[in-house]
Structures are given as structure tokens and as C-alpha cells.
Amino acid sequence: MRKILFILSFAGLVAGCLGAYLFGITQPPLPPAFPPPANPYAAGIYAEGIVESDQPSGENINIYPEVPGVVRTIFVAEGQTVRKGAPLLQIDDTVQRATVEQQAAQVRAGMSLLEELRAQPRKENLDVVQSQIVAAQASLKTTDDALAKQQSAYDLNPKSISKDALDGASNAMTVAKANLEVAQRQYDLIKAGAWSYDIADQEKQIDALEKARMASSALLDKYLILAPRDAIVLSISATVGSYISAQGTYDAYTQGAAPVMVLGTPQTELNVRCYVDEILVPHIPPAAKMKAQMSVRGSTVKLPMEFVRVQPFVSPKIELSNEKAERVDVRVLPVIFRVKKPADLNLYPGALVDVYIGE
User: The pTM is what?
Assistant: First the structure.
């Protein structure tokens, strides 16, 4: 029994020593898949860059609609080249189009009423009033004859007719004269046509209706989004049936708002926006002597860059999704360079690159 324990103890000791030896052997590290970027300048400064379209100012063209609604049609595809004024996206305009048609009908109704006012007097109305004048004249003649007969009888024998009957005949004649005068003045009023103030008021109402129609029509044009310039469609965030607004569209990946579309310039040349840390800003070389080189991540490609401009505003650094919660206590100065895109390299706007700036 003691022999067996001794043998097992010796075997355990040998196994422990062998294991310690094997686990103590240091494995050489694997070489990196791609060499890390190296500073090509004696006193160069490092900056992280973002590839974007070559724009005279600003960044890529972010498309936001001026009116909210549901996307009905998308006319372009990602990577497609579009000309200035080409349709990009159609928002459902059913309600707005009906509003424009309603206001156009109101303008037409107002014009019809204005033409009616200007066409006065109407011959048929004059004929009616003239008939009323003839009737009033006949009534006056009848009452005048009746009064003359009663007056003659009263003059021959005052007892042949009562004073009340004579006064009634006189009053009837007065009423008949008044009726004739009213009919004559009614004729003059209709013959004069529409009042100038009524015509002016109707003209102003038509002008107000037309301006409202023009405003609604201009708003209707906003439901069709057109390309603001010759460009390439870099990305489309909206889909047919999705709701978009002036804030853009909901991005399911970042769970925030995103532009409906992003347009860029033809990608023969690209810009690289470098964010230089604020503590390195005093070391940026003068523009006339500035040189820069960028390294494309995941490759050994290094490309020279041409200085374009400095955006002279130091701002907080924003990473990834541009959310305020992701801001860090670092301020950066944007410096923009231009780079020619190699034909055999997949380089797209939005890619992060390593940049060294030297003199």
C-alpha cells in the first residue's frame, strides 16, 4: 500500500513539473493583420477624420421635408446620380391638393360674382321696374280722376259728398304720387348698376382668395421633394408608407431622428473632415506649408491630401450618433482636406480615417 502511494506521489510530482514547464512557455504574439498608421512627419500631429462629399461649404446635403406626411413614392435609389430639380420623394398630398382645389373654386365663384356686379343693370330688372312705373302712373291717374270728380261734386253741393270722402280721395292721390316717385327712384337705382364700393370690396375679396390659393399651392409643391443640385444619393432613410416630418425620419438603429435622404457630390474627389484636438490647435502649420496624409483603416493605403479650409469654430467633440449624451469634455477644430479617390479602393463618405498633419 505504501509503495502504491509513493508511486502516485512521484507521478503527481512529475506531472506538476511537466505542466509548469509547458504552461510557462511564452507564445510569440501574432503579427497584426495591418500595420498601424505611422507618423510620416517629424513633428506631425494626429487627428481623426471623417470622409464626406466634396462641398464648397458645410458637409453632405441632408434632405429634410418642410411638411410632414406619409411617403407615397421614392423616385431614386442609393448610389444613383440625380440632376438638379429631379424628383426625389413624394409625400401624400391628398388633403393639401383638395384644399387647393377648394380655394380655386372659391376664387372662381368670387370672379363670377364680380362679373355679375360689373354686368349690372340687367335688362330684365329694368323692364320690371318700368312696368311698375307704368302701373304707378295708371294708379295716380285713377286717383286723380276720382279726386277731381269728388271735388266737382263737393263744389256744386257740399252736402252731396262727405268731407271724409273728399279727404280720403286726396290722401289716395298723395299715396299714388309717392308710389310713382318710389318706382321712378327704384328705376334710377337699378339703371345706375352696382355700387362702386361693392365692386371694390368684391375685387379685394377675390385678391385675398387668390393669395390664399397661391399660398396653398406653394405649400402643395413642398410635398414633392426635388434635388437641390446635381448630386449622388448616398443614403435613403425613409421607406414607402413611413411617416416623415421636418425632424426627418425615425432611425430604428440609432433610435433617433435621421435625415430622410443624404446627397453628396460625384465621388471622384472626396473631403476629409479632421477633428484636431484643442490642445494641438496651436501646433497646426500655416495653410501655405500644411501637408497631410491619411491612412485608410483595414488596409495599407496611405493617400496624400490637399488642404481646403479651416472651419474657424472650436466645438465639443461628437461621436457616433451625434447624440448630446455622447459628448465628451474635448473640444476640436474641424480642418477640411481634399483627397482623390483611387479607382481600386472602396472609400465612401462616412468612413473614419487616421490623419497626420505636418509641415
Answer: 0.66
